[in-house]
Design a protein that fits this description.
- Keywords: Plasmid.
- The chain is of the alpha/beta class and about 375 residues long.
- The strands form 4 sheets. It has a 5-stranded parallel beta sheet, with helices on both faces. A 5-stranded mixed β-barrel has the order 12-18-17-13-19, surrounded by 4 helices. The protein has a two-stranded antiparallel sheet with strand order 4-5.
- Helix content is about 35%, strand content about 30%.
- Helix 6 crosses helix 12 and helix 7 packs parallel to helix 11.
- Strand 9 and strand 10 form a beta hairpin.
Length: about 375
């Protein structure tokens, strides 16, 4: 969500602009309007806060006139009445005549000469904006090492919103956040994903990181993108043992062909590996592929348990602790955003587990996620 700074005075605009950045508003989210035509053009954006000057020129190099009322009426008629409105003026003597009109439309009047006053008001508004911010995309990571590549690859800022650990970033012209879940597992993933989808209203969600693979269906270091996910631990215990009833959810059928096309891009793996300096790589390159994922709450490091799980679906290739929950949260949301989940196989779910490929797996899955989100909006 953007801030529109409607101000023709460069010195005043610079002071407000600098304070917004100091409070964490990124430069790309500040739209400057020096006159009424700039203001009209800027209404195409999703504006969360309008900072208004009472006197503004109608056109470039024109004389400033009392255009504040026209600005307010235009905001309301443009369907943006839910945005925050703050008028910062160098002419407080005009306030008595204007207060009733401005405040009736929810616009706060602030004296520019009272620096602490308008800054304090902005502080309060920004706090509320951070709670209600909308994003184009949200990516989830279950581990810090899975989110670290985004911090290295993108400029952004870390923000905590109502207990949610967010790293706000931009991919091209689209804004989003990379959320670090409080803990691993289906329950944490389901709750966190549901809350973020409801609060941030993304057009697409994703998850990247590392996973286990099933021998003969996946290779060490292979990037796998979810075509469908199911929960392996749902079912019923009887006297004869456990009878599986796997709940499943598929990747959006309109999105799946585009993901398949991305995975078939020439030299994709070379592109994803470029820039990786974090540690060990696989001994051989393995082509990324679509795969069926299965998820559960427990780490599996025993072949007998693995054998029981992999017979549920003959094409299952990967096992993790969160992907089904993220898919299901997106599917059950009223918004139903498409879901892109990509993880790298770093072990074969046996006693031979180690951390050698964790950095590599986190890195290439994050690089693919960035590419997939860019392609989604293209």
């Amino acid at each position: 969500m953007k801030v529109m700074l409607i101000e023709d005075n460069d010195s005043k605009a610079k002071a407000i602009y600098s304070y917004l950045q100091k409070k964490g508003v990124v430069a790309s989210n500040i739209v400057r309007a020096k006159n009424m035509t700039d203001f009209a053009a800027g209404l195409q954006f999703d504006i969360g806060l309008f900072i208004i000057d009472l006197q503004l020129p109608s056109v470039d190099k024109g004389a400033a006139t009392q255009n504040g009322k026209a600005i307010l009426e235009t905001i309301v008629k443009a369907g943006k009445a839910n945005a925050f409105l703050l008028a910062i003026s160098s002419y407080p003597n005009d306030f008595p005549d204007l207060r009733e009109f401005y405040e009736a439309r929810g616009c706060i009047l602030a004296n520019y000469a009272n620096t602490k006053g308008w800054q304090s008001t902005l502080d309060s508004i920004i706090i509320q904006l951070n709670r209600n911010v909308d994003f184009d995309f949200v990516v989830f990571c279950a581990l810090q090492e899975e989110r670290n590549p985004y911090v290295a690859l993108l400029e952004g800022r870390q923000v905590t919103r109502a207990g949610i650990d967010c790293f706000d970033v931009s991919i091209g012209a689209k804004n989003g956040t990379v959320v670090l879940m409080p803990k691993m597992g289906l329950v944490n993933a389901a709750i966190t994903a549901s809350l973020c989808i409801e609060r941030f209203k993304p057009s697409v969600v994703g998850m990247s990181g590392i996973c286990g693979g099933f021998k003969d269906r996946a290779e060490m270091g292979q990037l796998l993108v979810s075509s469908m996910a199911y929960e392996y631990q749902s079912g019923k215990w009887t006297a004869d043992g456990f009878r599986h009833e796997p709940y499943q959810v598929g990747t959006d059928p309109q999105l799946l062909p585009r993901l398949r096309a991305l995975l078939n891009t020439d030299q994709l793996l070379d592109e994803l590996e470029a820039g990786f300096r974090g540690g060990k790589r696989p001994t051989t390159q393995v082509k990324p592929d679509l795969s069926v994922f299965t998820s559960g709450s427990a780490v599996i490091a025993d072949q007998r348990h693995l054998d029981q799980i992999q017979v549920i679906h003959r094409k299952v290739g990967a096992l993790d602790m969160e992907i089904f929950a993220v898919h299901q949260a997106a599917e059950l949301s009223p918004r139903r955003p498409p879901c892109i989940c990509a993880k790298t196989v770093v072990d074969l779910c046996n006693s031979g587990k180690d951390d050698d490929l964790h950095s590599y797996g986190s890195y290439i899955s994050a690089k693919f996620m960035l590419k997939a989100i860019h392609d989604f909006f293209r």
